Amino acid sequence: MTWRLCLPDDRLKWTEGWDSHPIWPAEPDVSIFKDLVWSRYARPGLADSLKEQLEIEFLDDGAHHKVYNVKVPGWSAPLIFRVAVPIDPTLKMENEMSSLRFLREKTRVPVPGFVAWGPAAGTKLGYDWCLMEKLPGVELRSIWRTMPWERKLELTDRLADVLSQLWKPEYKFDQIGSIYVPRQATDNTAADDTMAGNATTTRYVVGPAVDNCFFSGRRRYPHQHRGPFPSCRKWLESLITLEREVITTTKTLLDHKEDMTAAHRDADWERLVEDELEIDDEDEFLDEYDEALDTVQAYYKLVPEIFSAGDPEANIFVDPDTFELTGILDWESAMTLPDWHGRDYPLLLQAPDPFDKTMPRIPDTYDEEDERYNAALVASRDRWELRLLRHRYDEKLEKLGWKDWRPSSSTARAKKLFLEGVSMLSSDLRGAKRHLVWAQDALDEDKRQRRAAGVQHAGEVVHGVAGTAGHGLDAQA
């Protein structure tokens, strides 16, 4: 029974390797797409015979989605139909559609509008899906290195202007979690005024957090609390509890191999241990088990000290001729988060500082197939450019009234180190212990600075909207 509960036979399978991604249980049936699109899109006056003219063609696939072009009779705007692999059924899609609606209604962030969406339950498709507008332009990464420098500066200014809208005080929420539109308020179909971009009075609520830390690997199977959380303290305690559950259930599975199902016995044991139980060595895990639980308790103990009770470029689209920003995609893991965690540079601008003291020359080519290609020179030039663009981003934000926008105190550093360490509890015990020490050191440094300045520790402020790392829906909401 233990194995059936903690590692079900019908679980989602993943590919091997460092870039592991989910394996689709079955190929989506394109013929069903047409029925879904027509049922949600057809308007009075459109003859059913036009349904046969509806065209759906495969466009692209990523780690979690398959995307199809949709051409609908009588509709000039291009659409896409997107199907999601069941990593976090319903909630992931529902949060993304609600976040898009929020952004279109409340901000000037250029995001696609959605026509309709639906959960896997109750459809023949068997997957969450959405029908949405297709953004014009091309992915920024496809032309980034050929863009003129002045255009890169202009785009950086534009990103600063757009993403800083998400930090406005009026977009603050009082809980940590993900954004939803109450289900009784929507039939999963976008209203015409939303599609047109007109302001509405939609009510948004904070609900369960859509975050990889809650559904990666076996984390989806144990009992867990995903929020919404009233404070950072409760949020971190929930994450620690989940990692503890992963550790303890791993030992339970190893101690009760007799409960393995036939499917488990047929699997390669070494791969099962490494990929499914997420441990490198069975004997080493058992030897360090008590130490791992002691480390978990140390994290629990430090939570109240750090958190007071009160509290990439692949998704940016540009015009290939003018390099103007046309839209930002992938808000599927948008969350309401505190400033210390949510505010950062867009992933596009994140990179280590350059090693060279002076900017290197422009490479002869960026084509890796060309014999003149110099990987070291390309990497060095990229780091230099990105550092200059980060400075530009800072300057633009200061002009917009966001001086010192990025939390840099010792307390903020302690919180970040603590959160990183929590994510390592069940997978990297040594790393988790190091981060615990570093977080304590940063906290002690903050206390020394406050005592020297005669300042009392301040409570936390909850909680802005922050998106996926790629673009920072750091819209503290």
TrEMBL record:
Any Pfam family hit: APH
InterPro entries hit by this protein: AGP_Transferase, Aminoglycoside_PTrfase, Kinase-like_dom_sf
Domain Aminoglycoside phosphotransferase: 56-335
PANTHER family attached to this UniProt entry: AMINOGLYCOSIDE PHOSPHOTRANSFERASE DOMAIN-CONTAINING PROTEIN, AMINOGLYCOSIDE PHOSPHOTRANSFERASE-RELATED-RELATED
Protein name: Aminoglycoside phosphotransferase domain-containing protein
Organism of derivation: Parachaetomium inaequale
